[in-house]
Each structure stands twice: as C-alpha cells, then as structure tokens.
Design goal:
Helix 1 runs antiparallel to helix 2 and helix 3 packs antiparallel against helix 4. Helix content is 71%, strand content 2%. The N and C termini lie close together (10 Å). The model has no long low-confidence stretch (mean pLDDT 82). The longest helix has 33 residues. With 162 residues, the chain is mainly α.
Length: 162
C-alpha cells in the first residue's frame, strides 16, 4: 500500500490529466491533416475541423473534470488501502472498456460495426489511460526518492516498510 500526501496526489492527478489529453491531442491532429471529404455538391466537408475546434474550446473544462476524477479515484483507493499498481491497472482497463462501450452502444450498423468501433475506442482509451496512470504513479511515487529534509510533506506521512 502506498501513502501519498494530498498535495502531491493533486499534482500527480493534474499531470496525469495532461498526459491523457496529450495523447488525445495527437489523435485529434490526424483528422485535420487528412484531405477533407467532399459533399455531393462539391463543397468540402469540414466536420473534423469543427469537431477539433469544439474540443479545443472545451479542453479546460475537460481537463478539470478529468483531474477531479483521477484525484477522487486515487483518494478513495488510498482511503481503502488499495492504492497499488495492480488496482490502478484494473481501473484503467475497466474505465477503458466502460467508456468504449458507452461510445459504441448507439451504433446502428450491426454488431460487427460495433465490435470494430469497440476495439478501436478500447485501444485508444487503453493507451491514453495507461499513459495517464503511468504519469500519475511516477509523479506520486517521486516522494519516495526524495529525502525528508527536502520535502516537508514526507514528514507528515507514516514510514513504510519495503
């Protein structure tokens, strides 16, 4: 069981949220860089560009919501003494599958189409959430490599056995 100070947990959650959105931003650039589709009347379809614009405008809100969700999840895991890499990995897989299922559930083109989209969304979300979890763990565990004289937050934590 790992014990992390609340301030360090918040900073780790903020960094993890930024890591998640970095992976998402890289994937958002791909539709913008592609050749636009053309409507039947010959006008270009700029829907991917509009979607990226909306997501860029909403990004501060999405960053705050994801940071809060990560912080609350880590706080609850620490409260129940379950803050470990295994429990975080379980949450990553569960969240990826759950969100991918929600994104696919309203597809009306049959179960094969849903299965393809589920695999695509799941792999993207698993990559993004795994990156986020790895960043959270590295930032939160950075306290163990710092001496107590350098970080006053470590003094308030009980000593661990390794």
């Amino acid at each position: 069981m790992t014990r992390v100070a609340p301030l360090r947990m918040f900073v780790a959650s903020l960094m993890a949220s930024m890591a998640f959105w970095t992976v998402a931003a890289i994937c958002l650039v791909l539709p913008v860089a592609q050749t636009p589709y053309v409507h039947a009347d010959g006008s270009p379809d700029n829907a991917p560009v509009r979607a990226v614009g909306v997501l860029i405008m909403l990004s501060p809100l999405l960053l705050a919501v994801l940071t809060a969700a990560i912080f609350i999840s880590a706080f609850v895991l620490q409260r129940f003494k379950r803050l470990s890499p295994r429990s975080i990995a379980t949450m990553v897989v569960t969240a990826s599958l759950g969100v991918a299922t929600l994104l696919v559930i309203d597809r009306h083109f049959g179960w094969r189409d849903q299965l393809y989209y589920l695999a695509g969304f799941f792999s993207f979300l698993l990559t993004a959430f795994s990156t986020s979890a790895a960043v959270w763990w590295k930032v939160a565990r950075a306290a163990s490599s710092i001496s107590p004289a350098c970080d006053p937050q470590i003094d308030s934590l009980p000593q661990q056995t390794r």
